[in-house]
Amino acid sequence: MSSFVVALDVGGTSMKGGLVTRSGEILRTDRRATPRDRGPAAVIATIRSFIDDLAAAGGGTPEGVGLAVPGLVTAEAALYSANIGWRDIPATDLVPLDVPVMLGHDVRTGGLAESVLGAGRELSDFLFLPIGTGIAGATILHGEPYGGSAGWGGEIGHIPVFPEGEACACGQIGCLETYASASAVARRYSTRATSSPALPPSTGTSPVAVSVTAERVAALTASGDPLATEIWGDAVEALSLALATYTLLLDPSAIVLGGGLAEAGTLLSAPLAERLQQRLAFRQAPPLRHAALGVSAGMLGAALLGWRAAGFTDAGTTWSLDVLKSPRVA
Ligand SMILES: [Zn+2]
Q1: Cα–Cα distance between 202 and 190 in angstroms, integer?
Q2: What separation in Å is there between the alpha carbon of 246 and the centre of ligand 1?
Q3: How far apart, in whole angstroms, are the C-alpha atoms of residue 198 and residue 200?
Q4: What is the structure's pLDDT at 320?
Q5: Mean pLDDT, rounded, for 7-22
Q6: Which of 107, 133, 242, 286 has the smallest CB count inside 10 Å?
Q7: pTM
Q8: Helix or strand or coil: residue 258?
Q9: pLDDT of residue 115
Q10: How far apart are the first and last CA of the chain?
Q11: For residue 82, how many other CB atoms are within 10 A of its CB?
Q12: How far is the CA of 92 from the centre of ligand 1 (A)?
């Protein structure tokens, strides 16, 4: 068995794990639920046993371990996560093995993977923007994710785009995430459809609750449904405002869209590219690209961190995309 690292992408609902060799071959992938409702200690115990099991499956001691985790993170410690509820957890507490370890912020680690292996492979400076339950970005400068002075960098989802608008869960008003995350698109459509008098009357006296997914809103938009078109248009408008700000400040060579909402393809990217260009009167808008690594970005970025921890700072530069696109990347 060739030497390998253990890579783990710790999300709020599930963890994606993998064993990745020095040449980028993915020997194994696996997934486990994140027991967030049982508290941070249970999450840490699950991470430790998952790493143990992955290492055992590799049939040897890994060269290193890389972990992508949410919240405020340094390479050595998980400082804070509202999502998981932990504070000041040293990397060594998360790993039951005496091997080099490196931690990374979840979105920035996905951005690192897109930079080294994926859609940003030949780009120096770009924004990686996964649009899912929430919106966070990874600012890639000179090929590396930039987290700012204290690790809060990249929170583009909480840029106020409609300051007179709807309240965000973060406590501010009119954040990008309130209009353009996949869950916001679904929630705003559901709320409006439920209260809309234009809907077929219900048989009872109270409105019938409508619950849809962002995917459904996208399909309704494509078929010309007026309400879906309006909600989708709000999301595009909000994104164009935030991305115009980002572009004017940092002049990226591309914007790499990922996450669930980007699965809508040109239904999102075509009007967004047009609105973005309209907002950038005196310059060319950066091209929009689709992320290449999908839900595996975090795990693959964690593998890069694991190899970096083991001393191979050029990890990934020779890995082939064909290997990465193998069906074993779950
Ligand atoms: Zn917010």
Answers
A1: 15
A2: 17
A3: 7
A4: 83
A5: 96
A6: 133
A7: 0.93
A8: strand
A9: 97
A10: 21
A11: 11
A12: 32
